[in-house]
Predict the structure.
Amino acid sequence: MPPDADVQQLEASALEELGAATDIAALEEWRVAYLGRKGRLTGLLRGLASLSIEERRTVGSAANELKQRLEEAHAARRRTVEEARVERVIVGERRDVTLPGPPLPRGRLHPITQTMRDIVSSLSGMGFQVAEGPEIEWDRYNFEALRIPPDHPARDMWDTLWIDYEMDGRHPMLLRTHTSPNQVRVMEQREPPIRIIVPGKCYRFEATDATHEWMLTQVEGLAVDEGISLTDLKGTLAEFARQMFGRDRKVGFRCDYFPFVEPGMECRIDCFICRGDGCRTCHRSGWIEILGAGMVHPEILANAGYDTERYTGFAFGMGVERIAMLRYGVDDIRHFYSNDLRFLRQF
Amino acid sequence: MRVPLRWLSEYVDLVLDPEELARRLTTAGVEVGEIIAAGDWQNIVVGEVVKLDKHPNADRLTLPTVDIGGGEQRQVVCGAPNIAVGQKIAYAAVGARLIDGHSGEPTVLRKAKIRGVESQGMVCSEKELGLGEAHEGILVLSAEASVGTPLSDVLGDTVFDFDLTPNRPDLFSVLGIAREVAALTGQKVRDPSIQYEEKGAAAKGRAKVTIADPDLCPRYVGAIIDGVKIGTSPDWMQECLTAAGLRPINNIVDITNYVMLEMGQPLHAFDYDRLARHHIIVRRAEAGEKMELIDGSKHTFTNEMLMIADAERSVAVAGVMGGFDSEVTDDTKTVLLEAANFNGPNIRRTSQALKARTDASTRFEKGLSEHLPPIAAARAVKLMVDHAGGRAAKGIIDEHPGKAKEGRVTVTMERLIRVLGMEPSTARIREILSGLGFGARWMPPDRFVVRVPYWRTDVSIADDVIEEIARIEGYDQLPTSQLRGQIPELVPQPRRDLRERVRDALANAGMQEIITYSLTDMESLQKVLPKGELAVTPPLRVSNPLSRQWEYARTTLRHALLDTLASNLRGDQSLISLFEMGRVYLPREDDLPNEAEMAVGVVSGREPDRWGRPTGDAAGFYAAKSRLAHVFSALRLTADYREATDSAYLPGRTAEVFVGGARVGLIGEVHPQVAERFDIGREVAMFEVDLDALLPHVSEVVHFQPVSPYPAVEEDLAIVVAEDVPAARALELIRASNLVANVSVFDVYSGDPIAAGKKSLAFAISYQAEGKTLSDADVAKERRRIVERLQRELAAELRA
């Protein structure tokens, strides 16, 4: 048989078989059988070596043209098969788009963690770095170094849980009542400029009700540097309050007392419910208090060895639960640590 | 503290309406906690009890008939023990708005039958009228009150209930509040009169005061008033006391209370004739000394407590309460009035120890002015002369070992600007300070010398004066600015960073975060810790726990997770997975505890199917492990698990977790007996990771590895080994090959046709070389080596 005939015969059988292939696998089989490394067309081309130069040229070019035609036919057939397959899926294998996908487990962070992160992130943006401290503290750091000596009436502001450990007839160890002791610890170790926030748990000897918990979470802030004044404190807190509660909030300040600051203040935002007109939620004041603050008392700076003529500072502290209650509209603080999943999964 | 506005207006003109005044005071740091509009008394009038019958069905109840004016009478049911015929009382008709005496909530009075007898209205207590807390008896009005007049005409007033700060003892007085009002509204204060005529013999010769312990008593003023007639105090005074929340007693006691509320100086009236040798000795108690106080309580004193004694015995606890034996009685003729100054911390300690926090002790403990006693004494003497028929002795006895200097503070403009960030005008500064009673002298070019008024014991440095200026001006009036200056150098917080990464990883693994209490009880710890461990290392105990439930600082989180799991089981089998990031408190000798950071998780329930419904497969050891593995994957760490035992976990399903050779935690199925202690009747798997142990092995830095351009060859390999051979051993041996890029287990099987005591392990192995494409021969050669190694080390057989 002349080599030409081989080419023609090959083409005929190839096209016939191609027409019979109705899925991708069959097409692939066909491709391997004809166009693959060990395929029939490749075999035919290999056979050229035994031919004369003349024949080799004729048959060679015919075979190469055939290869091109078969590749094109394969591609066309493949398109048809693909289209038919897609058509079958579209017509016969519809998805009910309203059915759910298989469940992926979804974990959530506790609302206090979420609120804490937002607080930290807001203040980080203003250059405050986190500095954490111990929850079980010495009286010295929790009170005395903050200008609250033993038997000071201001101790009533922080009813205390004491650790059963006696030294010289006193209980020097306690569950910290606020995060302020870490202010002192940081100032003992660092020199100004200081810009820190202290997040963490605190504890109070306090009966629980809708607005009081004996375990609470606080964030304390401290900035010490040259040229820090009350107007900076106001600006920092106002910016913080607007980041947390919305740009359109009104932020107000009133005088308040904490032994470790002078002057002392309380920061308030206009009431969510009445927008400042006065209602039950805000005790008719139009304001909701969110944190306490003030200029660091010069005695505390002096105790840290700082030059009080040169350096001033401000400090502030807030209850994270209170902020979370305001943001989420939670009406009872006890929800947070009762850990009912029906509550936690809402956040 | 309650301040009736009618009383307040005696010392300062009130030019603002109450709401605005309260707002201004609050903003200036004098917080009005509540405005009590006593006087909104619809349907409440003055009545007179004209008849008192017994209740037919109840011994404790009476049936008073009340004349309510206009010739009308009403019979009501009353439970008050102090009701009597002839009393003027507050009668509330049906429809009146009252405070419920038990719940404290506002309520509207309705017609009611009480024990079968209809009550036509009610006779009210102070609490029911919103005047105070007293509810044990009814409020008895002045005899002069005329029947039928609305109660608001007799008692009506607005009362400010202040939430005061402990630094301002001067504000625990109506006069102190008046000074604030004056400063805030530009008015003048009218000081109460302290002028009286001295008619008796000199006080000095008739009584003696010895201060034995001057460290605790810087000043003691005694005044003598003869010929007093004990009776009721004037109506206006009773009304002031009632509105302020105190109960009138008699004219002498009322005057001491009135002056205390008016000026902030606690006073005490002794019966002069009951003081042995008329000698007052201020001294520490003798240890074990006993005395009965005027409230009938009996106490034993320690020698840290300061007493007021006469020549023979103690007659009062200094600054806290008078003694029963020396108090003024109906027969008292001569009063020795005490106006003293005591050491605040000492009074506070004593009153706490005696559990007797009184109006006096709460004022003394805040540190009153040494200059106040003679002024307050004079005021009380004047009132006793005017309203108790007394004759004032000449002069007073004044022992004053303490020498409080008049406070002077220099305030430079430089400091003012440094602290406030702005500069009020010198005229405004002077105006504010003099309005508050400070003397402010301008010393050119740049400073004020400020004289602090005697009552402001809280002001001692320039910044204190600066706060005065800022708070009266109003903080809201000051400008705002943003922090400038250098942002401090970053101090890395690796422990916190790790904690937050683990927290995110666990939430991403589908676990719900919980936060539980740091304190717990011994029983909870015993449930989850090995027997005896708590005896060897007892947890820290709180000496004043809120409840037994919260008595110990936890040394584990196990109980917290299991408790929370138990409380969230709802009877179905759905999967619950919880975690907590928290501290445990591990005691150390004479030091603060080690607060170790833990990550603890529990998984329980049935794995969900494609629809999220519980399948038959309980989430056990491997469910916990996959979640924990998620954490290590997030941290790019490799963990090893070695079988272990722990009393809380089920043997055979428990492992210690190692990272970088260090033990970082524990994972396993909770022992069913432990779960049962929490009323959990199903499988629970738990893991605990000590973040501090993990921390040294965590790296923030990722080192990029080039991706090999040469193809990998994937092959499966199945071997048969003894049951107790851990898969990790085989994996380790396979991984030892240089050409193995990756290997994982994909099947474990035992049973037919595998021989008993053996199991089949199947591995998916990916071979890859760094510098070339592997040939079939290369792979076959390497496979042979691996199989040989497995045969040699594990006695493994290649599975056909």
Remarks:
- Chain B has six domains: 2-37+161-185, 44-156, 198-399, 408-476, 494-697, 713-798.
- Chain B touches chain A through 96 residues (CB under 8 Å).
